[in-house]
From TrEMBL, chains A, B:
Annotated CDD domains: NPD_like
Purpose: Nitronate monooxygenase that uses molecular oxygen to catalyze the oxidative denitrification of alkyl nitronates. Acts on propionate 3-nitronate (P3N), the presumed physiological substrate. Probably functions in the detoxification of P3N, a metabolic poison produced by plants and fungi as a defense mechanism.
PANTHER family registered for this protein in UniProt: NITRONATE MONOOXYGENASE-RELATED
Family according to the record: Belongs to the nitronate monooxygenase family. NMO class I subfamily.
Protein name: Probable nitronate monooxygenase
Cofactor(s) the protein requires to work: FMN
Catalytic activity: 3 propionate 3-nitronate + 3 O2 + H2O = 3 3-oxopropanoate + 2 nitrate + nitrite + H2O2 + 3 H(+)
Length: 351, 351
C-alpha cells in the first residue's frame, strides 16, 4: 500500500503526536517527535497569536523536520448572566476548599475568540507551518484557501462519517477520525455528543470506503498493535495523545502523568462537560463526580472553561488531582514514562 | 502465531457467528456458518429447555462440525408492582396505536428464570454441545465445572479488563470482549453501563496483556479488515453479529434486515433500555425516542422485556419498524444480503 499521507507530509513513520492543548505539547516534545520521524504537533487551542508564533519559532530553531499545529475552530456562543451565575455558585465550594478567592472572571466574547483564531491563522501562514489541523468544526473556506495557497497541509477532525464527508467537501487535505476511545475533548460538530461516540473498529472502515482523502486514526492507540490495527482498517497514520502525554518531554502536570501511569483500571475514564462546557474524556475524580448533577446546565465552551480556570490552577499548585482535568484515552494501562524518541521507535519497530 | 482457540474449537477460520437471541440464529444459519469453517452459535437466551434441545438436535442433524450455544446468566430481580404499573402506563399509547389490547403480562420470577437456565445447562450437557458461551454475567462454579467435565468449551463475555480477569479466575476457557461498538445487549456485569463502553482498539490490547485465556473480539467488525485488525490487537478470533444478521439464513425480521441494509448513516444507532430494561444498541426509532424520558424509571430486565413483548409482536405484524427492536452494531454501512457461506469466505479470503 502506498502511503500518500507520509509522502505529502514528508515524514518517515505513520505516527502523529496529538496536538494536546494547555501546555502539554512543549517545543521539546514536538521537536523530539518530528526528529524521530513522526509528526510533532503544537496544541495551540488556548494560545494567543504571539505565543503561537513564539512556539513555532522555537520548534523551527530545533528541527528542520516537518511539524504541525492545531487550532480550535470557534463556534458562536453567548455570555448568559444567569447561567454563569448558577455555574459560579456550583463552583464556589471547590474554590473555597482550595483556599482560592473566587474573584472576577473575564470572558472573551465570541468575536474576540474569532479574532484570535484568525490572528493565529495569519501567524501560521507567515511562519509557513507545514501542517495545520482543526478541531471543534471546520474553518471557513477562506481560511482553508489561504492556508493551502501558503503550502500548509490542512487536516480536519471528524467523529462520524458525515463529518468526514463534510471535511472532504470543504477541500481539506486529510481527516483525523476521532474514535470514542479518545482522551480529551470530543471534536464532533455535526453529530451530537452521544452520536459521536463511535469506536474506531467501526468508524475507520465505513469512512475510508466513502472518503478519498487520507484518514488518520485517533483514539485508544498506545502501541504498535494499535498502529497496525488502524492500518488494517484503512487508516494511513495513527495519532496518539495519551501515549505521548506521559513522555519525558511532555509538559503535562506531573500529577496528570502519574494518574495515567498508575492506572490499573481500564474503566476509570469518563466523559464530562464539567471542566470546559464541552464533553471530554478524562480520569474520573471528585470534581467530575460532584459536578455530575449540574452538568447539563453549565455554560457552554469556552465560558465554563474560563470559570474553572482558577480551580484548575489552584488544584495544580496544591497537588490536588481531584480538581484537575486529567484528560486520558481508554487505554491508560499501556502508558509508559519514556522519551518521545523511544515511543516513536516502539510504535514502528518490527518484532 | 499459533491459534490455541481454533485448535481447541476444531474450527478452520477465526470467525464466530454471534449468538443473537430471539429467533435470529436459525438452525440454517448456525449450520451454514459451521459448515463454512467458522463457529455457528445458537442464541438461546430467550428459549426454554425443550426448544433449546430441539434446535441443538436440528443442528446436529445438519452438520458434523462444531457449533455453540449462548445462555443469559440470570441475575436476581424483583417484580415491583408500582414500577411495573408506571411502565405499563407509558407503554399504553404504543399498544393503542398498534390496535393491540394491553392484556395481562405474566412474569417469570427470578427463581423460575434460574430454573429454566439450569434446565438449559442440563440439555447442553446431555446433548454434548461443543461450545457454550454466557452473557450478562458468570455462571456458578458448579455450572462451569459440569460443563467442562462434559467436554463443553466454556466462554464468558466481558466488557472491561476487570470482567475478563474475573472470567479467567472463574476457570472459563475463553472470553469474548464486547466492545462499545457492539449491537444488541451490553454484557457488563461488574462495570456500570457507562464504564462498559470501551472501544475494541483500547480494550483488546490491555486485556490480552493481562489475561492468559484466548480472547475473542466482538463489536463493529464487519469484514476482513476488522478481523485482521482484531488479530493485530491480540484477539484470536472475531465474533460478528450484525454482519450475520442480514445473511440469507438469518431468522431476523425482514424489516430489521432492511433497516440495517438501507443504512447510509453511521451515527444512527443508539443505546436504549426501553425495550428490555437492559442497555442495548440498536437503530433509533420512535419507540426509543419517545421512551427516552422514562428510561431510567423502567422495570429491570427481564420484566420490561416481558412488558414490551406485545408491542414488538404487533409492530412486526403491522410492518411498523418504529416500534420494533432493531439491534445493530456501529457499522451497518458494511452489511450485505449474502449467504453465511459467502460472508465467511469474504471474511477470511486473501486479497
Amino acid at each position: 500500500m502506498t502511503n500518500r499521507l507520509l509522502k505529502a507530509l514528508s515524514i518517515s513513520h505513520p505516527i502523529i503526536q496529538a496536538p494536546m492543548a494547555g501546555g502539554i505539547t512543549t517545543a521539546e516534545l514536538v521537536i523530539a517527535v518530528s526528529e524521530a520521524g513522526g509528526l510533532g504537533m503544537i496544541g495551540a487551542g488556548y494560545l494567543e497569536a504571539e505565543s503561537t508564533r513564539r512556539q513555532i519559532q522555537e520548534i523551527k530553531a530545533g528541527t528542520n523536520k516537518p511539524f504541525g499545529i492545531n487550532l480550535f475552530v470557534p463556534s458562536p456562543y453567548k455570555e448568559e448572566k444567569d447561567v454563569i451565575h448558577r455555574a459560579q455558585l456550583s463552583l464556589k465550594p471547590f474554590l473555597e476548599k482550595l483556599g482560592s478567592l473566587s474573584g472576577e472572571n473575564a470572558f472573551n466574547s465570541y468575536e474576540q475568540t474569532l479574532e484570535i483564531f484568525l490572528e493565529q491563522v495569519k501567524v501560521i501562514i507567515e511562519e509557513q507551518v507545514p501542517v495545520c489541523s482543526f478541531t471543534f468544526g471546520m474553518p471557513s473556506s477562506d481560511v482553508i484557501h489561504f492556508l493551502k495557497q501558503a503550502g500548509t497541509y490542512t487536516i480536519g477532525t471528524a467523529t462520524t462519517l458525515s463529518e468526514a464527508l463534510a471535511i472532504e467537501a470543504a477541500g481539506m487535505d486529510a481527516v483525523v477520525l476521532q474514535g470514542s476511545e479518545a482522551g480529551g475533548h470530543r471534536g464532533h460538530f455535526l453529530a451530537g455528543v452521544e452520536q459521536s461516540m463511535i469506536g474506531l473498529m467501526a468508524l475507520i472502515p465505513q469512512t475510508v470506503d466513502q472518503v478519498n482523502i487520507p484518514v488518520i486514526a485517533a483514539g485508544g492507540i498506545m502501541d504498535r498493535r494499535g498502529v497496525q490495527a488502524a492500518q488494517c482498517l484503512g487508516a494511513q497514520a495513527a495519532q496518539l495523545g495519551t501515549a505521548f502525554l506521559t513522555c519525558t518531554e511532555s509538559g503535562a502536570n506531573t500529577l496528570h502523568k502519574q494518574a495515567i501511569l498508575e492506572g490499573q483500571q481500564e474503566d476509570k475514564t469518563t466523559l464530562t462537560k464539567a471542566f470546559s462546557g464541552k464533553a471530554a474524556r478524562g480520569i474520573e475524580n471528585d470534581f467530575i463526580r460532584n459536578m455530575r448533577k449540574v452538568e447539563q446546565e453549565l455554560p457552554e465552551f469556552p465560558i465554563q472553561n474560563t470559570l474553572t480556570k482558577p480551580i484548575r490552577s489552584a488544584a495544580a499548585q496544591n497537588n490536588d488531582r481531584n480538581m484537575m482535568s486529567l484528560w486520558c484515552g481508554q487505554n491508560p494501562n499501556l502508558a509508559e514514562p519514556i522519551t518521545a524518541k523511544q515511543l516513536v521507535h516502539k510504535l514502528v519497530d518490527e518484532e
